[in-house]
Design goal:
Blueprint: H1 2-51, E1 75-80, H2 85-89, H3 91-99, E2 103-108, H4 118-131, E3 139-141, H5 157-171, E4 175-179, H6 183-186, H7 188-203, E5 210-214, H8 219-222, H9 228-238, E6 244-248, H10 252-260, H11 268-276, E7 282-287
Parallel strand pairs: 1-2, 1-4, 2-3, 4-5
Antiparallel strand pairs: 5-7, 6-7
Helix pairs in contact: 4-10, 5-7
Bound molecules: 2-acetamido-2-deoxy-beta-D-glucopyranose.
EC number: 3.5.1.89
Enzyme class: hydrolase
Keywords: Membrane, Transmembrane, Transmembrane helix
Length: 288
């Protein structure tokens, strides 16, 4: 009798006062499961990247063999808008190319002077390029009066096309890599650079210049870090009518090292960006 009463008493106490507690325990369990799944997924993805046992056909991009059996070395020009674009967005592709012995050039169309740090940022680009194994003499940084860094500064596509064309002739470039029309972060200068390259392709259609754009992903994929390797591997299948290549960063540490050379930009939120950005781990390129 006595015990039963206590039992009932406890039960009703439990129901009335502890229901929120149970809900909280469940919510915590759910969070714990979500967070631990994300961690497991991150670790597995990083492992996959570093060990290179990736299900996509490996190294088909620019890996055509010449008659002699050696890889056909290309002169590749990266066309970017600001110092640090190369490290923040294009490191997987730059690493892929330098490891395979291609000749990488960078054309940076502004010194990134929106905050008055342009002169410093130009030097930082040379330091980052050294980390990325791009020789100093293969890096051009422009400070053109009509191509200044900033939102709302429109860059004229004819001027861009002329500048890029000169660079192509000077360095015997046969392939261009640049932003797509969104430009990863949506910066208008990135978008304009894309249209400068488009203009050039239209103008010199008779020349055998090949161009590839870096595909901008949605915000979920953009901040999924290494996990994006699984999502971007679905992408080439979806767009089978387009020529798409998905390149893994074989040395993700290099993205951090290269970005760290941009000391004037290397603030906490960019460190977080580089850790969480899928562009640190994988690049999807589409033929323009
Ligand atoms: C871009 O520049 C060219 C010549 O430099 C000029 O003819 C053209 O009108 C300009 N385009 C725009 C949109 O300002």
């Amino acid at each position: 009798m006595y015990l039963g009463t206590v039992g009932i008493g406890l039960d009703s106490y439990d129901n009335v006062f502890n229901a929120p507690y149970h809900a909280m325990v469940h919510a915590r369990m759910a969070w714990f499961l979500i967070v631990s799944s994300v961690i497991v997924l991150w670790v597995a993805s990083l492992f996959k990247i570093i060990h290179g046992s990736y299900s996509l056909p490996k190294g088909t991009f620019l890996n055509n063999l010449k008659n002699g059996g050696s890889v056909n070395k290309r002169n590749v020009l990266f066309v970017v808008a600001h110092p640090d674009d190369e490290s923040m967005f294009f490191t997987p592709t730059i690493n892929y190319l330098t490891v395979r012995g291609h000749n990488v050039h960078i054309l940076c169309l502004s010194i990134g002077d929106a905050d008055g740090k342009g002169i410093t940022r130009k030097e930082e680009l040379y330091q980052a390029s050294a980390i990325l194994k791009v020789p100093h003499q293969q890096v051009s940084v422009l400070d053109h009066p009509n191509l200044q860094d900033g939102f709302g500064k429109v860059w004229n596509d004819s001027i861009l096309a002329n500048i890029i064309e000169e660079e192509i002739t000077r360095n015997n470039i046969d392939l261009i890599i640049t932003f797509d029309n969104y430009g990863v972060s949506g910066h208008c200068n990135h978008h304009d650079v894309h249209y400068g390259v488009r203009k050039l392709l239209q103008a010199s259609s008779q020349r055998k210049i090949e161009a590839w754009e870096l595909v901008s992903t949605n915000i979920f994929r953009k901040y999924s870090g290494p996990v994006d390797i699984w999502l971007s591997s679905l992408n080439p299948m979806q767009s089978s009518h387009e020529v798409v290549h998905c390149l893994l960063n074989e040395q993700p540490r290099k993205s951090f090292l290269a970005m760290a050379q941009h000391s004037s930009q290397w603030v906490w939120f960019r460190k977080l960006f580089v850790a969480f950005s899928s562009y640190t781990y994988v690049n999807t390129l589409k033929k323009m």
